[in-house]
Design goal:
The protein has about 400 residues and is mostly helical. The chain is built from 14 helices and 2 strands. Among the domains are: about 115-295, no CATH class; about 310-400, no CATH class. The structure holds heme C.
């Protein structure tokens, strides 16, 4: 019963996380597009910055933006902040349930760094807090006066961070740690800069004072960062399920390309929403960058040179591969796993007998041949030559070169 409670709590927290994330990103994309589409109008009050007409759900909306504030503060104001906070709270809960709760499988790779589970969790949390402090420091430094230089410095910072994490955590742990770090920076921008700034403006206005324009400028800069970081952060959340993305030697390089690709795609939509000619070239750049990312994931894969003399016949290769998978994988991937702490075979994948293994030939290729994703954290060792053998075996099966039942 306890196992079911854990499984369900993970599912429910994941559900909340996705819903909160959709609400946050949805409202954020909506307001960016709205902001960019505002046009001046003669009939608007003096303090108004612009307006937009929209049609949705059977009615027309006339949105008016007041840049500093309206002459009289409205009695009721809707704030947008719980979408961001909810995403972070559910996200850190999910990180704790999945990654911190099984750090030896998800965070640690003893071949990379010999750390205990507690150390892994502490380093992860410290990494998140320190990264925010460094990022915030960059924004407040003289570099912060230029959006372009700040963006470049921020990019270099994130790539170095990804590289640094890859020297500490397992491939999968490092990748998710990057997602959580960027996500936290975005939420901290809302919690520590944007909302407090906005609150001070409202308080000043209510007291009949002129608000300090620096709050608005700072909030706008952080919002711009959040805008450009949204797509990469979602990529990391999804990419953590694709071993050829995170469990290869150049995962940090792929991340660097994704940061630029996400920014370039946002640029397309931002320009389009401004009502300017859409910069179609951005899609070409995105496609070229995706091509580089694909090459990196291939280049960073384990060496797949298979020694053809190692097995006398296709059947010998077939049997050796099945035997290898059962031997190295079935302690976890069994109907009744032997691995301490595992109540169910992870993801319902059984690798205990020949038909199990054959059913998962492609998954085995991606998890254990084209990447180092499995066994997680290399808790059970597999030589690169053995991974190469699995790749050759999968190829052979897909080309029908061996009778699957032989
Ligand atoms: C120490 C335990 C352990 C061992 C040994 C192990 N795995 Fe896994 N495996 C896991 C865990 C944990 C997950 C779930 C990962 C996740 O949450 O995405 C998993 C997931 C998988 C998946 C499903 C991936 C998905 O996202 O659907 C496949 C396929 C897989 N393992 C193959 C293998 C192969 C092949 C081997 C042997 C080379 C192996 N595993 C060895 C723990 C193990």
């Amino acid at each position: 019963m306890v196992d079911y409670l854990w499984m369900w709590s993970e599912l429910i927290v994941r559900w909340v996380h996705v819903i909160a994330g959709i609400a946050w990103i949805g409202s954020s994309f909506y307001f960016i597009a709205l902001d960019l589409s505002l046009k001046p109008g003669k009939e608007l009050p003096d303090e108004a910055h612009g307006q937009a007409w929209q049609v949705h759900g059977g009615g027309f909306y006339n949105m008016v933006k007041y840049l500093v504030a309206p002459a009289k503060m409205p009695d009721e104001l809707t704030w947008f902040k719980w979408e961001a906070y909810g995403t972070w709270i559910s996200g850190i809960a999910l990180m704790s349930l999945v990654y911190y709760g099984a750090a030896s499988l998800y965070m640690i790779d003893l071949e990379i760094l010999d750390i205990t589970e507690i150390q892994a969790v502490m380093i992860s949390l410290a990494g998140i807090v320190i990264s925010w402090a460094l990022y915030d420091g960059l924004c407040r430094s003289p570099l912060g006066k230029s959006d372009l230089w700040l963006a470049l410095a921020g990019f270099v910072f994130l790539v170095l961070l990804a590289f640094g994490y890859s020297l500490i955590f397992s491939a999968r742990g490092a990748f998710m740690q990057m997602g959580v770090t960027i996500g936290t920076i975005m939420v901290a921008n809302v919690l520590m800069i944007i909302i407090p700034g906005q609150t001070r403006v409202v308080t000043a206005l209510k007291a009949g004072k002129t608000p300090d324009p620096r709050h608005g400028a700072r909030g706008k800069q952080r919002s711009l960062h959040n805008n450009y970081l949204t797509l990469p952060v979602i990529f990391v959340m999804i990419g953590g399920h694709y071993p050829a993305v995170f469990a290869t030697d150049y995962a940090w390089g792929i991340l660097a390309l994704v940061l630029i690709t996400g920014a370039v795609i946002r640029h397309f939509f931002n320009t389009k929403h401004k009502g300017l000619a859409p910069p179609w070239w951005t899609w070409l750049v995105a496609a070229i960058l995706a091509g580089f990312a694909i090459s990196l994931s291939h280049l960073g894969a384990p060496n797949m040179e298979y020694d053809k003399t190692a097995h006398a016949s296709p059947t010998a290769l077939h049997n050796a591969s099945i035997e290898l998978v059962i031997e190295r994988c079935s302690s976890c991937h069994a109907r009744e796993p032997l691995w301490d702490g595992l109540a169910f075979a992870p993801k319902g994948v059984y690798l205990e007998n020949k038909s199990d293994v054959l059913r998962h030939a492609n998954d085995i290729f991606w998890q254990a041949a084209a990447s180092h994703a499995m066994p997680p954290g290399q808790v059970i060792w597999i030589e690169d030559e053995e991974r190469a053998m699995l790749a050759a075996w999968r190829n052979m099966i897909n080309h029908g070169l061996v009778d699957r039942d032989s």
